[in-house]
Amino acid sequence: MAAPSTRYHAALTAASAAETSAQQAVARTLRLRMILMDELRRMQETLDASKRKLGESLLGRVDLGAVGAVARYCGDTAGRGRELVGRLAQLERELAGGRVKLNEAVRRRRSLELLAEQELRARRRARERSEEAALDDLSATRFFQERLSGRRGVLAGAPA
């Protein structure tokens, strides 16, 4: 980031804060999405294991109570899975919006940084031109003083 400019410092600070806030919002959404996806994956693994066990138990004597319990569990889990999928879809929309906000915040901060850097370069160029003008003026003054002193026969800076 460019050195603070009196003109852009406050705007740059605000833009950086907005960018940080947008980054945090995206990170929170990504974390929540990861948690929900892990839960959905665990639910699927549990369902697969339950169905496998149920299939194995159907080889001999069938316990209809156990079959009913597994069916209820699968139904409940499927309902919870649908809820999670709906919540994940909502999080994906939030994530897309958060990324757009983050990109806008980054673009704004970068543009303000460029403006601040341009202002600093302009100030530096103006200062250098001013110093060059002062040196030119000093050189011209010294030259004319030496010329005037030379006409009188006295060197500039030499004892008379």
Automatic annotation (TrEMBL):
The keyword Protein transport applies. Its main location: membrane. It is a peripheral membrane protein. It comes from the Bacteria. It is found in: Cell membrane. One of its GO terms (biological process) is chemotaxis. Gene3D superfamilies: 1.10.287.1700. One of its GO terms (cellular component) is plasma membrane. The keyword Membrane applies. Belongs to the FliJ family. This is Flagellar FliJ protein. The lineage of its organism: Bacteria, Pseudomonadati, Planctomycetota, Phycisphaerae, Phycisphaerales.
